[in-house]
Specification:
TPR repeats: 149-182, 269-302, 344-377
Strand order of the largest sheet: 6-7-5-4-2-8
CATH superfamily of the domain at 559-754: Histidine kinase-like ATPase, C-terminal domain
CATH class of the domain at 559-754: Alpha Beta
Structural class: mainly alpha
Domain Histidine kinase: 514-732
Catalytic activity: ATP + protein L-histidine = ADP + protein N-phospho-L-histidine
Distance between the termini: 89 Å
Strand content: 5-15%
Number of strands: 8
Keywords: Kinase, Membrane, Phosphoprotein, TPR repeat, Transferase, Transmembrane, Transmembrane helix, Two-component regulatory system
CATH architecture of the domain at 559-754: 2-Layer Sandwich
Mean pLDDT: 78
Pfam family, one: TPR_12
Low-confidence stretches: 1-19, 732-763
Number of helices: 29
């Protein structure tokens, strides 16, 4: 039971702490959800619920909205549970008035019901009935069925308390039918307990026990700790009637433990009273007196009149020295609250006291009043004792006729009571038999369960062994796969290294071939020309000398260009080139890198047109882009006929800048065009004048443009010239100025222009 209590409390308090609203950012929906959680917490931990509702009212004081009314109602209900009925009444009256002002029917009916419950606990049954009847009618009109069901239940309690058990049963059954759809409703627990009590009042112990057990199951399902304590209390009472005192004490102590934990004075008073009755019936008067006194104290603190009447009556029955005063106080309180069962018991005991004191007329008067109230409340156990008392009184005053009449009634009722007692004992025996039979079945089931558990354990061991074997197999498989995978990766890496080595060897062979063949020829001619000039320069005519010098210039330019490409190519292969973004004037860069071609341009009569604006500057690597322009112009010169034209131009869009080198040469054949930009392919073809090339130029251009973040493409038709373009991203670039008229250079002009700039030193 403690585990259930603390688990339920932990869940609700933990959930509510995560959803506690703050003044700054909470919405009405969040506040309402928080209040609903606190409302649910009432039946698990009233102290925590009170702390949280006080915090809420401190954060949102004196508002006139529905949330404030709901908070006031919740606080009033907590105070009522704690026995502070006067404070609770103040809260309920405030809630009733404000909900009426806001025309909120649900909150108004809830506050009315709460007021009725307070009046009922104080013994003002008729006033409480008026409220319950009003709530029942209004809730029916407003289609608020939950409020209607609760009102119906409390009307049934009124008739139950006043002794009209059949009428009470009608209201209980009606309310139970209305809540039947909501199996988790705590109200079902209270309805089944009340129905069971009606059957007990009519002498049907078996049916009563059945309803008590069903109520307890429902209370456990809902997790409502107050409802659980009520169910335990009723199970304790019926076991006391059945003579199962130890079991009765067990249930009552469990109920008391919960009620003490929840700090509910009126509920504790009921548990104390029932424990006292159980100890009294088992013959332990001292323990009974202790618990009756505790019950009286708790009832007075909670203003629980019904409990006070019971405690005073039971305490006086133990032979207390102030028993006369106690009976009188109990009678006075029972009469003021119209508590018929309390009046009947108090009048019976007062009549017996009058008889002991010799005041037979007062005894007869008191016993007749007791008989009337007992009949109204159907107190089947009390009525025979009243007739017995009247018989003794009339016998003392020599009214033998009335004495015999009451003796006959006493005998008849006693006989019926004995018959009912026998039936009850038979029922108890049947219950004990069923319990014993159930215990035997439980033992059989327990043995069967033990066998099943052993079988399950064996199966678990087998399954564990199989799982272990599977895990071992999986681990071995993973190990084998890991080794296979590593070997495959190593083999793949070795193949890649072999492939790279093969490529490196091819490139080395290519380099050696270029050095031995392409570089040797220009150097050989350069050596022959210089030797010839050094020996014959005095006798050679000027025209021959000039041609020889031009040939030397062309040979030196080709050799320099080839060496430059070889240098860039080798650095590229060794990954030693890192692009550097410097602000570069493209017009000047082109002039600087094409000056080496002045002789060949003049010799072939080719016009080079630089259409790049003088003030165009972009951030890029000048060495790489200069090499690109140099190679593209070199290729154009190679394939452009005499008196041809080479144009360098630029196009800029929103994202890229595109440069083009266009010639009117013989173009590129389709078969060669497809292979131009493929990796590991160096394409070399003879120029118009059978000029040789290394095949490195376009490959270097393609690689360098990619390093700078651009792309390269061409537009060429065979015999219709070639246009090679490359694009560069321009993250930072100067805006275009008005494009000036293009500069057109002949070979002599170009030579004069480029001589204005210092040569570029290449790394």
């Amino acid at each position: 039971m403690k585990v259930l209590f603390f688990f339920s409390t932990f869940l609700l308090i933990g959930f509510s702490s995560c959803h506690q609203p703050t003044k700054e950012n909470s919405t009405d929906n969040e506040k309402d959800a928080y209040l609903n959680i606190v409302d649910s917490l009432i039946n698990i931990d009233p102290s925590e619920a009170l702390r949280r509702i006080n915090h809420f009212l401190t954060e949102y004081p004196q508002n006139e909205d529905e949330l404030f009314i709901k908070a006031i109602l919740i606080k009033g209900e907590i105070l009522s549970l704690r026995g502070a009925n006067d404070s609770a009444l103040i809260h309920f009256n405030i809630a009733q008035k404000k909900s009426l002002d806001l025309d909120n029917a649900e909150l108004y009916l809830r506050s009315k019901l709460a007021l009725g419950k307070i009046l009922y606990s104080r013994g003002e049954y008729n006033s409480a009935l008026e409220i319950f009847t009003t709530v029942q009618q209004l809730s029916s009109d407003q289609n608020l069925m939950y409020k209607n069901t609760r009102a119906t239940y409390y009307i049934g309690k009124y008739y139950h308390t006043t002794g009209n058990f059949n009428r009470a049963m009608d209201f209980y059954i009606k309310a139970l039918q209305q809540t039947d759809k909501d199996k988790a409703s705590p109200l079902i627990t209270y309805l089944k307990l009340s129905i069971g009590k009606c059957f007990l009042n009519n002498g049907d112990t078996n049916t009563s026990l059945y309803y008590y057990q069903e109520a307890y199951k429902n209370a456990i399902t809902t997790g409502n700790l107050i409802a659980i304590s009520h169910a335990l209390n009723h199970l304790g009472s019926i076991n006391n009637i059945l003579g199962q005192h130890e079991l009765s004490l067990h249930y009552h102590y469990l109920a008391l433990e919960l009620r003490e934990t929840l700090a509910l004075p009126s509920e504790k008073a009921i548990s104390y009273n029932n424990l006292g009755r159980t100890w009294l019936k088992s013959g332990n008067i001292d323990s009974a007196v202790i618990y009756f006194e505790k019950s009286l104290k708790s009832s007075l603190a909670a203003e629980y009149k019904k409990g006070t009447v019971k405690a005073l009556t039971n305490l006086a029955r133990t032979g207390h020295q102030n028993k006369t005063e106690m009976y009188q106080n109990a009678l006075s309180m029972a009469e003021s609250s119209n508590y018929n069962a309390g009046i009947a018991n108090a009048r019976l005991n007062m009549g017996l006291l009058y008889f002991e004191n010799g005041d037979f007329n007062k005894a007869i008067e008191s016993l007749y009043i007791s008989l009337d109230k007992a009949k109204k409340s159907k107190l089947s156990e009390t009525i025979p004792h009243i007739h017995k008392g009247l018989y003794k009184c009339y016998l003392k005053i020599n009214d033998l006729q009335k004495a015999m009449s009451h003796l006959e009634e006493y005998s008849r009722l006693k006989e019926r009571w004995l018959l009912e007692k026998n039936q009850q004992q038979l029922a108890e025996m049947f219950i004990l038999f069923e319990a014993d039979k159930m215990e035997q079945n439980n033992q059989i089931l327990k043995a069967d369960n033990q066998l099943k558990e052993m079988s399950i354990k064996r199966k678990k061991m087998l399954i564990g062994f199989i799982i272990g074997a599977l895990i071992l197999f999986i681990l071995l498989s993973l190990l084998i796969y890991w080794r296979f995978y590593n070997n495959r990766q190593a083999h793949r890496k070795q193949m890649e290294l072999n492939h790279q080595l093969e490529i490196a060897n091819r490139e080395k062979d290519k380099l050696m071939s270029i050095i031995s063949h392409e570089l040797r020829n220009p150097l050989y001619w350069f050596q022959n020309l210089t030797k010839s000039l050094s020996i014959k320069h005095r006798v050679l005519p000027p025209e021959t000398t000039e041609k020889s010098l031009l040939a030397l210039d062309e040979s030196a330019s080709q050799t320099f260009h080839l060496m430059d490409n070889l240098l860039f190519w080798s650095r590229s292969r060794l990954n030693r080139i890192t692009p550097k973004n410097d602000l570069t004037n493209i017009h000047l860069l082109i002039n600087q890198n094409t000056r080496i071609f002045s002789s060949i341009l003049e010799q072939k009569g080719i016009m080079l047109v630089n259409n790049i604006p003088n003030d165009l500057a972009i951030k890029t690597d000048p060495n790489l882009i200069g090499c690109v322009f140099r190679n593209l112009v070199s290729n154009s010169i190679k394939f452009t006929p005499s008196n041809g034209q080479i144009i360098i131009d630029v196009i800029k869009n929103s994202e890229n800048i595109v440069f083009s080198v266009t010639d009117n040469g013989k173009g590129i054949e389709p078969a060669i065009r497809e292979k131009l930009f493929k990796q590991n392919k160096e394409i070399s073809t003879l120029g118009i004048m059978n000029e040789h090339g290394s095949g490195l130029g376009l490959k270097l251009c393609f690689e360098f443009i990619e390093m700078c973040g651009g792309g390269m493409f061409l537009d060429s038709e065979h015999q219709n010239g070639t246009k090679i373009c490359f694009s560069l991203p321009v993250p930072i670039a100067e805006a275009f100025q008005t494009v000036q008229k293009p500069e057109t250079f002949s070979a002599n002009t170009l030579r004069h222009k480029v001589s204005e700039f210092n040569p570029i030193t290449m790394d």
